[in-house]
Amino acid sequence: MINTDIGITTRPRRSVADRIYPEQESNMAVTINAKGTSVSTFAVGKNGLTLSQAGQIAPPDGNDLTVSLAENTNLVVDAGNTGPALITASDNQDLHINPAVGGGQYLVLGETRWPTTDGAADQVLTTDGNGVLVFANVRTVGSPAPATTATNGFAYIPKMTGQPTGTPSAVTGYAPMVFDSVNGRLWVYNGVAWVYSILLAV
Predict the structure, then answer these.
(1) Which residue in 138, 95, 133, 136 sits closest to 115, CA to CA?
(2) What is the distance between the alpha carbons of residues 128 and 184, in angstroms, rounded to a whole number?
(3) Beta carbons of 136 and 129 less than 8 angstroms apart
(4) Which one, of 71, 72, 50, 67, lies nearest residue 59 by Cα?
């Protein structure tokens, strides 16, 4: 009698991700279908990007998610026929859009280019008429030299029916004013009291 040992080698069951080895030069699309209530996740590389059945794309912690597009191509968010298409943040976080982080220059929304830095206190955003927004000081009120027949371009101030009696909130370098339509007076608060000038009637 000849004694012979027979060795049996078993291999552990591998996941779909373990059995997919696309060549670097190939263009291959992989579709993972979940069965029942299970959740499927496809990982790209060891500790790499993950694509989940729930529609989440997650890069490894501490890494950016970069979408590379050819020149003059678009990244389209398809929200179907009804929309809306939403880009939002979660967990009470802010949504920052900063082209400079990736080496870009300007943020353009629609046809309008936004400034790359914040303005000074009390400045406002204004347009140059060519799609460029800039921060500027408010130096004038109304339009310059309106015609006597003009219907627009006037400076508007608030009006009330009677004398003002409240104490306005202080704004450094400015004095509040209001028109008293009952007595025909222009009131100005000088920091201590309301004073007025009598307006001439026609």
Answers:
(1) 133
(2) 38
(3) no
(4) 50
pTM of the model: 0.50
CA distances from 189 to 155, 166, 171, 178 (A): 19, 10, 11, 9
Residue 129 lies inside a defined structural domain of this protein = yes
The answer, yes or no, to whether residue 26 has pLDDT greater than 80, is no
Q: What is the pLDDT of residues 132-183, one digit of tens each?
A: 999 988 877 888 888 999 999 898 999 999 999 999 999 888 899 999 989 8
Question: How confident is residue 69, by pLDDT bands cut at 50, 70 and 90?
Answer: confident
Question: Would you put residue 129 in left (φ > 0), alpha (ψ -120 to 50) or beta?
Answer: left
Check if the beta carbon of residue 176 is closer than 8 Å to that of residue 188. Answer: yes
Please give the structure tokens belonging to residue 132: 């460029």
Q: Identify the residue whose tokens are 């400079």.
A: 100
In a domain, 110, yes or no: yes
Evaluate whether residue 119 is within a structural domain.
yes
In whole angstroms, what separates CA 59 from the centre of its chain?
Answer: 22
**Span 50-62, pLDDT tens digits:** 777 677 788 887 7
In terms of Cα–Cα distance, which of 99, 106, 153 is closest to 131? 106
Question: Per the domain annotation, does 184 fall within a domain?
Answer: yes
> Range of 114's domain?
99-136
- What is the number of structural domains in the chain? 2
